[in-house]
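hey
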């Protein structure tokens, strides 16, 4: 306050004293007091000559002062100011002073100095008065304000004087200023307490307001107080205030502590805030202060909320205070004060107002995160610690955003800018075969949505690429510490991801880090969710080893060279079944998997390998390898590649240009299952150890996605010995197929209590001393076929003494084909031998003629087609010919290559009839195929009833295997069976030889309808069924079949 001092000490006032009958009413604690109108000067030398004493109104309620006047009035009796005392009055401003102020005081004496009195400035024209208290509510000229000053907060003790000051120090005119006070009261009032809720319990905080400092410096405007509402629900902060209320008891803040309240800011300050504090200094000792600020902070030393508030708009804030303070684990911090901050350093510090209400402090019960780690459900404590990807230690997380966890724990959702890290109680280790599986959604897109599996807090400095970005509108290209997933999730989308994280990094994972980056000014926008997080290991490949097994980790590396392999490997994985029993390959892959512990050749012994194989789609070629290094060996050129001999088996080869770097074996067709067995100790040269299991699936066409196959049930036998070699035994089969034969060997092994897995194929591998399984199958076939020899009958010799007649007839030659009964020939005479042979057709096995058209009928089916009849009966037309490929039937056509295209029924009458026996050459069906040929080609369609079907389709044989016959639309069918025949098999242990005896039953012939349908009813492989579809194409199928054939020649048949 700027005080004007007089040169003289003046006690008497310049104007005459008013009548003592005048008095000013003052109600003190309910007792009306009459203050005599005896004005004395307050403080010395403040009044001036010519001044006018204040005037008391006729109703004794108002004291009006004009010009410069420091007036004091003695109370009739001394009054006590208590801690709860409140001075109430009304103030009216008629004219402001010049370079002065208006104030009201209660004092023990007439001296301003000392602590026994207090003045309150009601208005000022000379700025802030530091020697007095300045009220928060200023009164404009012409205005009236009502004041209720908690004087007991600022002083206590006895007082004798009521003082009204109107200071006006303009030297040219000290009569400027006109104001009045009225309705004076001194009361005791219970000050409103603030209602808050702590851990669900309602409490009231005493309204004893304490100033809060920063670094020991005063920040609070102590002249006025916050106003607590009458119901205690809220507190209004006016002007610059840093005020604290003491809690009833200390409170321990933990990571889960939440401070929740309603807030409305009517007039903004430099910043607004709220704290829970342990003392009354914001920077006293610990830096771990529980203060947060909001609403466009300026020069703000506290944590800034990213939640955006709007002036005059009520909002409810839920602040994770413990999380903002960085309390983690079992850390806590005890606080004793609730602090309200409204920093307003502009002008007279009165220009701001905010209201806090419905304040709650509580511990949030957070759901733990549930993830699956290697098949086990793992609870991850919901303690949200910030982490960073910056090169320094800067904070990227907005700590006031709490990630929510669904009630079942399986979904984590981030709102706004959030970089939260969750500590795993038990870390897990990522190996090359570890996979991360999750669902990611981004309802509200922001810069990035990311998941990190880190082992330290700063993911950029941990030396690993262990973060994965799933979406965002500001995604950068992959870097040394993160990978961008493909596809990215767009706003509003949900995407399932399965990532071979072991292909990006390996090592321990101590934290799960979820990040939604938003570096905008508010940092409050954005929503992302991570659900159903699962960590699992790709299934290992189980390989049997004698009576046990071992696992090869699913760590796939390129074999031979990365230029051959499809990379990155993680995008072209071979798929191992969940039980580890099979491995499926799609598309091009040159792949190896290292054994954790290599197996030495001495440990592998006989090293007999067996496995099942089926191909579903053709590639270029397929190899399976049991390697000691990562080079695709070439034993055929040891000087060039001395230490890389053959280590692979070729399972299929559709690329004739491949080098002979693999052992060749049986090559099954599409859909044909096959079990391979190979004695590698007999095949491998210079072999020291089994270090890698490798597969080559070469497919270079187009995008290299062609080809699919599965290898399963891989087993290694180290000691191949026969259990039955010293045991004589016998068995009987109704059909001597390979399958039935092996089943009977299995039964004999059970009877003999053979040890181990009792594998009949391995037993016969040992018994026959075979190197590969096909040797065993050929032995079984030989045993079965030899049993039929005793029942065989060669109908070709009976038909004609000229043995070549049957062969020539099949090619469409001989008199049987050329001559006609209408021209004097006699089929009854020329074919008499056919009729005689028919007498043996029901009691004997008719031999299969040796003829080029009947050799190697691999699919187990044949057909005859005729285009004429030598009898008077016309040929029955039952099919259309599509085309003839003379290259397949060149020996019948007598040309090396050529073709004939039909397909429009212009070929005239054609009749086709066939039969099928399947692919097991030891079966009774295969043995009876000669009977079927006799019936179809000679008896039923030529001789019987003198039907007389003759002559072949030009360029094709009259009868032959399906691949040598014309492609047609339909064909009739005859089936030959003998369901009562048996084969008795005996093993002579003394000489190690099998003998077999066939006993014929009743051979029957039946019509089986359509040849293609009948063939598909047999237990034959898919690729053979497909081949049959390409030979008998059905009605309307010729055009497509012809164009498929012509496509290789660059031609198309017009409609």
């Amino acid at each position: 306050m700027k005080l004007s001092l007089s040169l003289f000490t003046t006690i008497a006032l310049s104007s005459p004293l008013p009548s003592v009958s005048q008095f000013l009413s003052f109600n003190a604690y309910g007792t009306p007091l009459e203050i005599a109108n005896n004005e004395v000067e307050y403080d010395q030398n403040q009044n001036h000559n010519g001044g006018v004493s204040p005037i008391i109104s006729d109703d004794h309620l108002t004291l009006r002062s004009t010009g410069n006047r420091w007036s004091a009035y003695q109370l009739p009796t001394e009054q006590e100011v208590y801690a709860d005392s409140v001075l109430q009055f009304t103030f009216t401003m008629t004219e402001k002073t010049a370079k002065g102020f208006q104030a009201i005081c209660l004092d023990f004496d007439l001296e301003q100095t000392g602590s026994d009195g207090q003045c309150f400035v009601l208005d000022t024209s000379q700025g802030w008065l530091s020697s007095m208290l300045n009220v928060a509510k200023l009164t404009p000229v012409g205005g009236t304000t009502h004041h209720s000053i908690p004087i007991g907060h600022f002083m206590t003790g006895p007082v004798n004087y009521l003082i009204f000051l109107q200071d006006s120090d303009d030297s040219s005119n000290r009569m400027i200023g006109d104001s009045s006070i009225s309705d004076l009261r001194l009361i005791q009032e219970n000050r409103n307490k603030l209602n808050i809720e702590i851990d669900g319990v309602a409490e009231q905080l005493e309204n004893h307001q304490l100033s809060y400092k920063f670094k020991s410096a005063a920040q609070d405007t102590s002249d006025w107080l916050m106003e607590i509402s009458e119901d205690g629900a809220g507190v209004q902060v006016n002007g610059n205030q840093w005020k604290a209320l003491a809690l009833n008891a200390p409170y321990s803040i933990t990571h889960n502590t939440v401070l929740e309240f309603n807030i409305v800011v009517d007039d903004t300050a430099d910043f607004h805030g709220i704290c829970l504090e342990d003392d009354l200094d914001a920077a006293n000792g610990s830096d771990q202060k529980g203060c947060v600020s909001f609403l466009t902070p300026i020069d703000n030393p506290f944590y800034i909320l990213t939640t955006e508030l709007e002036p005059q708009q009520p909002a409810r804030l839920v602040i994770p205070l413990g999380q903002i303070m960085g309390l983690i684990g079992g850390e806590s911090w005890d606080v004793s004060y609730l602090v309200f901050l409204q920093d307003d350093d502009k002008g007279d510090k009165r220009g701001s107002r905010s209201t806090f209400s419905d304040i709650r402090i509580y511990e949030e019960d957070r759901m733990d995160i549930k993830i699956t780690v290697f098949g086990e459900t793992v609870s991850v404590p919901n303690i949200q610690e910030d982490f960073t990807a910056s090169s320094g230690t800067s904070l990227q997380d907005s700590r006031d955003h709490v990630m929510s966890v669904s009630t079942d724990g399986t979904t984590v959702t981030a709102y706004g800018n959030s970089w939260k890290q969750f500590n795993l109680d038990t870390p897990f280790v990522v190996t090359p075969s570890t996979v991360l599986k999750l669902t990611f959604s981004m309802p509200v897109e922001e810069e990035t949505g990311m998941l990190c599996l880190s082992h330290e807090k700063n993911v950029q400095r941990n030396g690993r690429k262990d973060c994965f970005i799933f979406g965002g509108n500001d995604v950068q290209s992959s870097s040394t510490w993160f990978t961008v997933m493909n596809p990215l999730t767009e706003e509003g989308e949900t995407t399932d991801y399965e990532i071979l994280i072991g292909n990006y990094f390996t090592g321990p994972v101590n934290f799960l880090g979820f990040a939604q980056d938003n570096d905008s000014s508010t940092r409050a926008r954005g929503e992302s969710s991570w659900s159903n997080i699962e960590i699992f290991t790709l299934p290992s490949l189980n390989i049997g080893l004698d009576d046990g097994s071992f696992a090869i980790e699913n760590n796939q590396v390129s074999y031979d060279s990365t230029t051959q392999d499809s990379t990155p490997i993680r995008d072209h994985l071979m798929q191992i079944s969940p039980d580890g029993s099979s491995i499926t390959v799609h598309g091009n892959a040159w792949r190896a998997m290292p054994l954790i512990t290599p197996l030495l050749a001495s440990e592998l012994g006989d090293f007999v390998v067996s496995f099942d194989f089926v191909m579903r789609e053709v590639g270029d070629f397929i190899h399976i390898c049991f390697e000691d290094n990562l080079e695709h060996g070439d034993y055929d050129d040891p000087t060039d590649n001395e230490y890389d001999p053959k280590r692979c088996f070729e399972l299929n080869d559709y690329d004739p240009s491949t080098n002979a770097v693999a052992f060749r074996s049986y090559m099954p067709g599409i859909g044909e299952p096959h079990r391979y067995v190979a004695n590698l100790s007999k095949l491998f040269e210079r072999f020291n150890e089994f270090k890698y299991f490798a597969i080559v699936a070469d497919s270079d066409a187009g995008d290299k996605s062609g080809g699919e196959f599965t290898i399963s049930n891989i087993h290694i036998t180290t000691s191949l010995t026969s259990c039955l070699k010293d045991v004589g035994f016998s068995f009987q089969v109704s059909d001597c197929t390979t399958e039935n034969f092996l089943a009977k060997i299995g039964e004999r092994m059970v009877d003999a209590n053979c040890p181990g897995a009792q594998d009949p194929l391995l037993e016969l591998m040992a018994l026959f001393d075979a190197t590969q399984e096909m040797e065993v199958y050929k032995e079984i076939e030989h045993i079965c076929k030899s049993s039929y020899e005793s029942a065989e009958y060669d109908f070709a010799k009976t038909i004609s003494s000229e043995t070549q007649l049957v062969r020539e007839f099949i090619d469409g030659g001989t008199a049987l084909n050329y001559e006609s009964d209408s021209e004097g020939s006699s089929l009854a005479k020329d074919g008499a031998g056919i009729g005689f042979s028919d007498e043996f057709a029901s009691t004997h096995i008719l031999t299969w003629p040796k003829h080029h058209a009947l050799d190697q009928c691999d699919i187990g089916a044949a057909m005859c087609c005729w285009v004429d009849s030598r009898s008077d009966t016309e040929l029955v037309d039952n099919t259309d010919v599509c085309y003839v490929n003379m290259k397949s039937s060149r020996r019948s056509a007598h040309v090396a290559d050529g073709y004939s295209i039909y397909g429009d029924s212009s070929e005239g009458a054609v009749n086709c009839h066939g039969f099928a026996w399947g692919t097991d050459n030891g079966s009774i069906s295969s043995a009876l195929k000669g009977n079927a040929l006799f019936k179809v080609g000679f008896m039923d369609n030529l001789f019987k009833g003198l039907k007389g079907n003759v002559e072949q389709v030009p360029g094709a044989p009259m009868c032959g295997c399906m691949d040598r016959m014309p492609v047609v639309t339909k064909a009739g069918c005859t089936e030959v069976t003998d369901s009562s025949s048996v084969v008795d098999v005996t093993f002579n242990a003394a000489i190690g030889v099998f003998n077999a005896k066939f006993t014929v039953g009743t051979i029957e012939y039946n019509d089986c309808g359509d040849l293609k349908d009948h063939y598909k009813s047999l237990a034959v492989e898919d690729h053979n069924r497909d081949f049959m579809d390409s030979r008998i194409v059905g009605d309307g199928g010729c055009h497509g079949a012809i164009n498929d054939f012509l496509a290789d020649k660059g031609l198309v048949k017009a409609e």
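Residues 773-787 form the longest helix (15 residues). The chain has 18 helices and 69 strands.
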